[in-house]
Amino acid sequence: MTAQDRNEWARLMVSASIFGYFGWALINHWSNGIEETLKSAFMIAVGFWLGSSKGSADKAAVMTREPQPVTIDQPSDKPVPVEDKP
Question: How far apart are CA 6 and CA 58, in angstroms?
Fold first, then answer.
């Protein structure tokens, strides 16, 4: 088992533990406060899962590239009309 496999299993176990704990709380101690807490925890778990995905890592590599220079195609003596002519 490689280090990456261990990290994936650890992430899965932490997520399962969190969902299990809140599932237990949902069944045994239902209230509006628990409902809102479950919604928040779910959103945090989804954000964590998406943030740790391969697509997120690839996005970070794209963001480190140099920005492209801006070119202006419209000459200053011919402005773009923004209002309808009467």
Answer: 21
